[in-house]
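Dear all,

This email documents one entry for the complex benchmark we are building for the journal club exercise. For each entry we list the sequence lines for every component of the assembly. Then comes the predicted three-dimensional structure of the complex as a token string, followed by one or two observations. Please use this as the template for your own entries, and keep the labels exactly as they appear.
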Amino acid sequence: MSLENIRDDEVDIVIGALHSDLTTFMNEWKPMFCRFHLIIVKDPDLKEELRIPDGFNLNVYTKSDIDQVVGSSTSILFSGYSCRYFGYLVSQKRYIISMDDDCIPARDNKGFLVDAIAQHISNLSTPATPFFFNTLYDPFREGADFVRGYPFSLRSGVQCALSCGLWLNLADYDAPTQALKPEQRNSLYVDAVMTVPAAAMLPISGINVAFNREVLGPALIPALRLAGEGKLRWETMEDIWCGMCVKFVCDHLGLGVKTGLPYVWRNDRGNAIESLKKEWEGVKLMEEVVPFFQSVRLPASAATAEDCIVELAKVVKERLGAVDPVFTRAAGAMLDWVRLWKSVGSGASSLRA
Amino acid sequence: MEPATATAAAAPPVPALKDELDIVIPTIRNLDFLEMWRPFFQPYHLIIVQDGDPSKIIKVPEGFDYELYNRNDINKILGPKASCISFKDSACRCFGYMVSKKKYVFTIDDDCFVAKDPAGKPINALEQHIKNLLSPSTPFFFNTLYDPFRDGADFVRGYPFSLREGVPTAVSHGLWLNIPDYDAPTQLVKPLERNTRFVDAVLTIPRGTLFPMCGMNLAFDRELIGPAMYFGLMGDGQPIGRYDDMWAGWCTKVICDHLGLGVKTGLPYIFHSKASNPFVNLRKEYKGIFWQEEIIPFFQQAVLPKDCTTVQKCYIELAKQVKEKLSKVDPYFDKLADAMVTWIEAWDELNPPEAAVPNGKAK
């Protein structure tokens, strides 16, 4: 496969607004955001008016827009962090880059501001290499290559469909971990991008991601909602579930997932000990999820992301639904999402961005 | 880019695993490079495997505690089984693994110097390898913040708690600044490329994923995985070279995956000073470049039966499968499969269970 050439007008930056005042956030990112179209989706639970500075090319969606498009046709709740998925739905671009609204640009080891947007685009436009691990990490990076012993037939790689970035300062730890180490901040800048090998599972954080909407779109699902889900990442598992499904789908379809750069700087927020009570449920669920994904197989006939999610939803309901009703609801949400995607996401709609 | 000098200040006050680790060095030239490593290596016992002309005297710098084996020694000690040890190829180093009596082995090439970290500080590669080997690996689930046991890091949100204990680490695979470990075609196309990127991470290679294992800067737990570290038939009289460490790495990874052991890669970096001749390399690797297209699927699909519960049993089983499935690629693999069995026989002879034997004598 060859290098993709990603134009600015093929990219949407989708921000889920969980805070009403986005002034600082938008201004910090202005140099990197200003060339692109933005979709801002306001958390339907947020009461205050959004404050967004001028100078951006954007569309804003609020509760009423969501209700109008989605209405009661679905069990999906677009509240909290899940509001961004509405942005994925209505986007008309090929690529989406999304990050939490409490992140600002990070600085690299030389002190330069990291252009996270450019890095995600670079990750998505160069091949991924999931079938064999390259010990010098991304072979398509400047100054690197495939090492001795890397089979030549695997050097053209596969399309990279998902790019997972990382976080300096407040890392994406769960509540128990951060509560045990309240002062711990991530200050280690690891200068690498790498492909996550096929069949390897990983926790994909929604804080700083980018993906090929055209190829993966419906596979990013707002499906798993914890009973006590809150407005801090410690209090959610939706992106982790989404990520497990997406990686699984990518493995099945022969698409690549990269992890590493870019870093964003994540502002301090919240109290891990407080959140401990809410996230425990999610922690238990992961114990069921791992053996499930290790053993499930999709039929070869599932050739698109849509097919895969439909098939996966069936198995989730059968096998995980028996373990915990949260999975039965998730399976239902996955099917609703595919239906929604078919009617809104891929077709024409007056509300498309 | 320069290697580090003035390493004296950087030596640790108490060298970890001083009596439990051997440093195995293959050489055909000289051991001058040891001077640079002295502060880091001197506390440890060295096993020098002298390749090539056994009548040549290889001088070991003063002050090192070592044993040295040339081809005559190898032939004497192994008798007819010496046929499994390569000649005129650094693959002969695995003889050093076999005669070592220690729990851990670190092996390094004689053109590898001390590297500097981004702050300019000399890197004690051995110390980092020991850290890697003494902390668990996490092959069953990828941690996006890399080594969770590192100071300042941890498991990320979503990482299953039942998998956070990890598994024992069998292999620590280090990297190289300056001359990267490229194959001949890549060297020919990019003769000037140097690896200047310091990636400050150690990570576990996920279970089920193969990788190209380089023997230039490598450490392993001999008790956990030693018998799998056979570096194959290379060099003189063989149709292939520069695939010794690759072969050992593929066998090792399959066996580690089967036995639930971990393989780490990343830090430490060494400074690789010499670029070998790409035309010479091309001749050596040429067949390997074609053969690896068959070899990789073989290893990717290799399944070891449940009753293979020791490394030796796994290895013998792999040898059987190599003979069955790869002989049709080239008769070389038939010979290699036999050599793999010879290796295990020799290993078991020199390493009988429950025998605690002191170091061999220095020359």
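Observations: Residues 348-352 of chain A have pLDDT under 50 and may be disordered. The first strand of chain A starts at residue 11 and ends at 17.
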